[in-house]
Amino acid sequence: MFTIEALPTTEVRAYQAGAPDAYGNPPERTISTGAGNPCRHCLCNIPEGAPILILAHLPFDGTHPYAETGPIFLCADACERHTGDEMPEVLITSPDYLIKGYGADDRIVYGTGAVEPPPQIKEAVERIFARSDVAYIHVRSSRNNCYQARIDRR
Fold this sequence. Notes:
- By secondary structure, this protein is mainly beta.
- The protein is 11% helix and 28% strand.
- It is built from 2 helices and 8 strands; from the N terminus they run E-H-E-E-E-E-E-H-E-E.
- The protein has a 5-stranded antiparallel β-sheet, covered by helices on one side. Strands 2-3-4 form a 3-stranded antiparallel β-sheet, covered by helices on one side.
- InterPro entries: DUF1203.
């Protein structure tokens, strides 16, 4: 069993208040075009016409060769953090996703990366977590490599 972890509310509220992103820049504010603007906090697609934030996100505690930084979207207004066991909207609306396992040292565990369609994500996560050297999994866009969410063992 596993849980899908959205960005922590305290981190998101700081960005919504103008805190700098991973590169020290304030989040950019714009308007959602609808499809393709997934919020990494509520894990829903931000509706067309709604205000959004775009910022550089580093989903690691520090920098190192495997610490990928990339663009993410957030609702500009307060939203509720995704919780629960169900696949969130942002992990079922694209044709496929890049998933890969990381060790406790935050390094990619080679041989775990896979591009999977939504119906096969759960099976792929279970296969990756069958390895004892995998501590957690990242889900990314398979086309743009943008961070989507983290998956942890339950």
